Amino acid sequence: MLSELKVCSLILQTKKESSVRKILSNSFICHFLGLCFVALIVAVFSFGQHGQDSVKNSAILISLCYLVTAFTLPLIARFLLVERKYYIIPIIVAVYSIALLIIALFRIDYSVIVTFIGAVSSFSWLFATAILRTDQKKLTLHSIDNFDYSELTAHKNLNVIALSEPYKEADIKQGLVVDLHKGLSAYQEKFIADCSLHSIPVFHAESIKEMISGKVQIKHLSENSIGTLQPNPLYQRFKRIWESLIILLTLPASLLIMIITAILIRLESPGPALFTQERVGQSGKVFKIYKFRSMTVKDESNSDKFATEEQARITRVGKFIRKFRIDELPQFFNVLKGEMALIGPRPEQESFVKLFENDIPFYGYRHMVKPGITGWAQTIHGYADDEDSTKEKLAYDLYYIKHLSLWLDINIVFKTLRTMLTGFGAK
Q: Within 13 Å and on the Cβ side, how many CA atoms surround 82?
């Protein structure tokens, strides 16, 4: 009897959880309830102060910050099918920082305590619902079995189900995936066409592989598909503006760090604190990159080497500034000069570029955009130390160029900040 009661209890609990998840799967309902939850928490903690302008202003601030966070979160977390719960804290911190900066500029009265409570309650709701909605965020695709989809099913946020004949459109939940480069029967071709006509998304298998791996499948790349790599020129202009503004706003703090770093470098080993080196930039133009010296001074007669081949020359200060990316700070001036961007493919030495362009197909296409201080390949893959790892890194660079957007750039900023603050992650 007791076991039966336990089973019934588990069934009821499962049904309740299923109902809650079903309600929260609707973004409009989820965020409406979220605003109500945050408003309730703020009202309880600010009881007796409701008439004050500072509390009213804080309530408006909290509501706007919640809506901006709710709108931004899925846009940033869509890449690599990542779990959005890991981006909630950095996005909330960024949104509230911008909001508080605006408040300071316009000298708007607000309550620090109420704003803090609003931020914490917003995080609590968004994090809890992100966990509860995990199952709804798992992408379920059905496939025509003309390719090996085991590589796709290995991803925890992707479920692929093979269709069996006769195919039925009603069986497809979120989309159809098929290898469009492989042979299809007349029946299969008609079914794919019918799915498209009835607004059922049809994905090429290589596109899904690209989405979950975060890199372009170079072996399937052709001259005809290079047009898809053309970045948005309007965003590139906007990118130049917002990156320059960030550098100028953070310049007082970054200059102080640079001065201290330069002194420590000079104290540890003889030679200049900075060094310049010619690198290849956008459209193949050569420019001089600025960097803090992290190694002992090299004999000019030595030839260019991969970064990982010169580990023995790294100083103690150099090891520290490399770990936290401080050695890259002087490149802020390259960005202000228009030679580089904050985010983009890392610039290579001219000798390596000439070598790779001869040996690696499509290598030159990474120069379609300005090179960056950090980038998608840098945060995911790290340094390249041979031709094979350079090919792998190129695949990530081309993915970045193909999907260049504000949301991908913000994603990279968060990954870079995590590496800078913790010292861990790809470098």
A: 18
Pair of tokens at residue 223: 């001259």
Give the residue with greater pLDDT, 281 vs 149. Answer: 281
Digit-coded pLDDT (tens) for 397-427 = 999 998 899 989 999 998 888 877 776 555 5
**How many Å is the Cα radius of gyration of the chain?**
26
DSSP secondary structure string for all residues of 179-233: -TTS---HHHHHHHHHHHHTT--EEEHHHHHHHHHTS--GGG--GGGGGGG---H
Instruction: Transcribe 299-365 into DSSP letters.
Output: PTTSPP--GGGGGGGB-HHHHHHHHTTGGGGGGHHHHHTTS-EEESPPP-BHHHHHHHHHHSTTGGG
Burial class (CB in 10 A: 0-12, 13-18, 19+), 247: middle
Positive or negative, the Cα torsion across 336, 404, 96, 427? negative
Does the pTM of the predicted model rise above 0.90? no
Q: Over the stretch 243-256, which tens digit does the pLDDT of each residue have?
A: 999 999 999 999 99
For 133, half-sphere exposure in the C-beta direction (CA atoms, 13 angstrom radius) is 19
* Cα–Cα distance measured from residue 343 to residue 418, given in angstroms and rounded to the nearest whole number: 15
**Per-residue pLDDT tens for 203-233?**
888 888 888 888 887 766 665 455 567 788 8
The CA distance from 286 to 115, in Å, is 49
Best CA proximity match to 394, nearest among 221, 218, 206 = 218
According to DSSP, the residues that pair with 177 across neighbouring strands are 143, 203
